[in-house]
From TrEMBL:
It is an enzyme of class 6 (ligase). It comes from Belnapia rosea. SUPFAM superfamilies: Nucleotidylyl transferase (SSF52374). This is Pantothenate synthetase. It is found in: Cytoplasm. Catalyzes the condensation of pantoate with beta-alanine in an ATP-dependent reaction via a pantoyl-adenylate intermediate. It catalyses: (R)-pantoate + beta-alanine + ATP = (R)-pantothenate + AMP + diphosphate + H(+). GO terms for biological process: pantothenate biosynthetic process. It comes from the Bacteria. GO terms for molecular function: ATP binding; pantoate-beta-alanine ligase activity.
Amino acid sequence: MRRASGPDATMRILRDLPTLRAELASLGPVALVPTMGALHAGHLSLIAAARREVGPGGVVAASIFVNPLQFLPGEDFDRYPRQEEADLAMLAEAGCDLAWLPSVETMYPPGQASTIIVEGPAQGWEGTARPGHFRGVATVCAKLFLQTGASVALFGEKDWQQLQVIRRMARDLDMPLRILGCPTLREADGLAMSSRNRYLDPEARARAAALPGAMRAAIEAMARGTSPAAALATARAGLTASGFTLDYLALVEPETLLEVPAPPGRLIAAARLGSIRLLDNMAA
Ligand code: AMP
């Protein structure tokens, strides 16, 4: 076991399962924040929420694992940002008690043959754009829940469909933990924080806030009585004119992700600026 070097020098940094289990056996209830690293303020807001959930006597655990199973062939698994030292310092600073950093071999031992397939909310949208993605997400989250014995796991609303998929899985498989969704943290101009935003060149970064801008405008137009079809068509046209390639912009039932004709619902979007794919969603 190695100690963190950040301001809170008591954070435990663990990489193998027997040590994790031995460590956790003697500690209080665990709140888990699963991440792929390249941390930003959005992730740290989940750490703060985790502390609120378990209190000073509980364990706030964060996992950092870039999960190969949730990347499709040709996606950015190799290019995904990795910055372990900086992430560990940020976690320690944020008051995290335990960082869980399994290797790919620890997570997926040779011969691994079991995965979890969620249907329902995993179908459509990201499920269509990235076939197999949610199988990878569900499988790694189920393993992280079992590895840590967490009593609560915290996820960002930023990845709305993912949050619904994990909730569905936990409910369907009687997993003994709560799944808590936390609000999306945004940059000053409204762009949802994301580890991949760093890959936007300055010109694309300046344009990126048009996505949440168009979504907000559509929601306000619908609230003023504009038909949903017209409000969404205006948003799509505006985004295309701003250089986005839209994968989808849709109004859906928040839990099932099935399309609804009018609010209330969740407005979900995926749009590409060059090779960078942005995701966002808002209550509508
Ligand atoms: P990732 O490292 O991208 O897999 O994200 C790890 C967790 O952080 C997921 O539950 C995300 O939904 C959440 N997250 C990512 N970006 C944000 C954000 N801007 N605000 C709040 N949570 C976020």
